[in-house]
Design brief:
Cofactor: pyridoxal 5'-phosphate
CATH superfamily of the largest domain: Type I PLP-dependent aspartate aminotransferase-like (Major domain)
EC number: 2.3.1.47
Protein name: 8-amino-7-oxononanoate synthase
CATH architecture of the largest domain: 3-Layer(aba) Sandwich
Structural class: alpha/beta
Bound molecules: pyridoxal-5'-phosphate
CATH class of the largest domain: Alpha Beta
Number of domains: 2
GO molecular function, one term: 8-amino-7-oxononanoate synthase activity
Oligomer: single chain
Pfam families: Aminotran_1_2
Length: about 400
């Protein structure tokens, strides 16, 4: 009889054997993930990053980060409530709030942590949470930590949200959605979601990570474009790490929400404050956005051109509503090979497979940025078409 090994009988070098078994299973399913470090300068055309306005290497932004490092140091030296709040953080929060037309803002060391904070602090065991089923992983993480009743409902479906709110068992409720969904770049029906949330006495939390800097007047984001940023029952999260080309995240909303986060949100209280360089970079990037309000329109024009040309080639392309579009691929391994051949042809594209795609359909994910020329887009379409696996066109 084979005795089940006790923990003592497993040699130390075999303790992690199960990881190899899981890696083999992922490889079998075409789900291996690899890091591909990039050089500081490359001839590769970037259709994978999130530097939508091309500000990460803008001299005004990078210069502000460098100057802040020399003035304030490389790290913020502590959590925000201890030594990690500098005048730079206060300036950034003030500028963000003013730009977006909200009462107050609170800066975090990442957008991921801002989302975890907003969801957990605005819910709890006494709350119901109703989410779109395609929300970002960081919001899902918040829901898991919240101890709330969580219902993930049909994608972009205000009626489904209304039904879940009407049948909830908890008095308090929070509706959670992305504004721009990360995989296909499609938009949430924010006006309708706000109306249905209000009808049922629920707050609305919108993750505007991909909308901020790209959508709305001068890049003020999707929530601002929907006229919801100043509403008393709406809270927005953003990242500083995409259109602003910096690093970090923020929650924007009513003053009493921000106060509540400062006093209760664990991913704010127990995390070292954003580095001064990132805070200064974000302030500088906001300054650029204010002086060059035409930048977001360039992003949307490139997305439209890229999507139109790829569709003409016969690919199944998502509608260009933001900086993100996706192209469906026949399989997960087909997607990986396609992305690798694009890289060999000089185009870096994203490759999204389960579990990053909730519907199980793998995709090439393409992002555009304000610096792309029409000829860059033409080159990208040629390389992507030539690299396509069999079955990628309809
Ligand atoms: C929709 C969405 N929300 C939140 C985040 C997290 O932001 P950050 O990268 O700043 O942690 C991301 C970025 O990956 C995102 O795509």
């Amino acid at each position: 009889m084979n005795a089940r090994p006790t923990s003592e009988s497993v040699p130390a070098e075999q303790v992690f054997d199960w990881l190899d078994a899981e890696a083999a299973r992922r490889a079998e399913a075409g789900l291996t993930r690899k890091l591909r470090p990039r050089g500081a300068s490359t001839a590769e055309l970037d259709l994978a990053g999130n530097d939508y306005l091309g500000l990460a290497r803008d001299k005004r932004v990078a210069g502000a980060a460098a100057a802040a490092t020399l003035r304030w140091g490389t790290g913020s030296t502590g959590s925000r409530l201890v030594t990690g709040s500098t005048e730079l953080h206060a300036e950034l929060e003030h500028e963000l709030a003013r730009f977006c037309g909200v009462q107050a803002a609170l800066v975090f060391s990442s957008g991921f942590l801002a989302n975890v904070a907003a969801v957990t602090a605005l819910s709890g065991a006494e709350s119901a949470i109703v989410t779109d089923k395609y929300i970002h992983a960081s919001l899902i993480e918040g829901c898991r930590l919240s101890r709330s009743d969580v219902a993930a409902v049909a994608h972009a479906d205000p009626a489904a949200v209304g039904h879940a709110l009407a049948t909830r068992r908890k008095a308090r409720a929070l509706v959670v959605t992305d504004s721009v969904f990360s995989v296909d770049g499609d938009l949430a029906p924010l006006t309708e979601l706000s109306a249905v949330s209000r009808e049922h006495g629920a707050a609305l939390l919108v993750d505007d990570a991909h909308g901020f800097g790209v959508l709305g007047e001068g890049g003020r984001g999707a929530v601002h474009a929907a006229g919801l940023s100043a509403e008393p029952d709406v809270v927005t999260t953003i990242t500083l790490s995409k259109a602003l080309g910096a690093q970090g995240g923020a929650v924007l909303g009513p003053r009493r929400v921000i106060r509540h986060l400062v006093e209760t949100a664990r991913s704010f209280i127990f995390d070292t404050g954003l580095a001064p360089a990132s805070a200064a970079a974000a302030v500088a990037a906001l300054g650029v956005l204010k002086t060059e309000p035409h930048l977001p329109a360039k992003v949307l024009a490139s997305a439209t051109r890229l999507a139109d040309l790829l569709r003409e080639e016969g690919f199944a392309v998502s509608a260009p509503r933001s900086a993100v579009i996706s192209v469906r691929t026949p399989s997960a391994s087909g997607a990986v090979g396609w992305a690798e051949r694009c890289a060999e042809g000089g185009i870096r594209v994203g490759c999204f497979r389960p579990p990053s795609v909730p519907d199980g359909v793998s995709r090439l994910r393409l992002t555009v940025h304000a610096g792309l020329t029409e000829s860059d887009v033409d080159t990208a379409v040629k390389v992507i078409s030539e690299a396509a696996p069999p079955g990628a066109t309809s």
